[in-house]
Input
Amino acid sequence: MYKIFFSFKLLYILIIQMFYPAFICAQVADTTYTSSTDTIECAKKENSSKAVTIIGTTVPLLMITYGIISLENPALINLDYNTQYELNEDNYLLHNKIDDFLQFSPAAAAFGMNLLGVKSKHKLSDMLILYALSNALETGIVRTGKTIIPRSRPDVAVLNSFPSGHAASAFIAAEFLHQEYGYLSVWISIGGYTMATLIGASRIFNDRHWVSDVIAGAGIGILSTKVIYWTYPYLKKIFGKKESNQLQSFIYPAYSNSALCLTISHHF
Output
């Protein structure tokens, strides 16, 4: 059982090291921004923003790198196999289907809070676009990985195990909730990431993915969302409407026939 403990501890440490320092930096940035407008305070805010960017980029990349290295590294391959063996041997009663139903729950919470009047970082139309673009980027990366990396799933000989799409979707939703409502309380972000971690763990318990598949998928989901949030202001400048009478349009995600799709809406 120590291998199981080590595997989940590794996933937990990677996630906590990614987002907890970012919360602290973000709180510092907010404090410096509202407390003073002089040059020193602005410099502190800029340094805090750089720290958030560095942390937000480095750790998801490390998670993805870990997953890629695990494809060929004997020690990590053995860790994957031994963890899966022990889970199937000792915890077969923990098999469940929550990963199919709850992978989008942190995002649903974010949209629900917005509809209930809780102020989010962006307005609802922007939230829809941000979430859709994050999923579009993640889907492209995950499908490419599944196509070019022939890795068998633990339960079947289908060569599309790496990386975990469910984990990527769950961590997109968690990072999305953090981006929109993390400023209210650190516990909102922790709640979202806890749910995403449970989804990732469920994929392992259900014998659908190796530990390294889930870690890589989580990294892809987090990084995809962060990249979209970083680039969105520039995308709005490029593609945003320039005149009040121009056509307005936005893209939002929909779930149909067991698949995530994108819907384009036009307002005349």
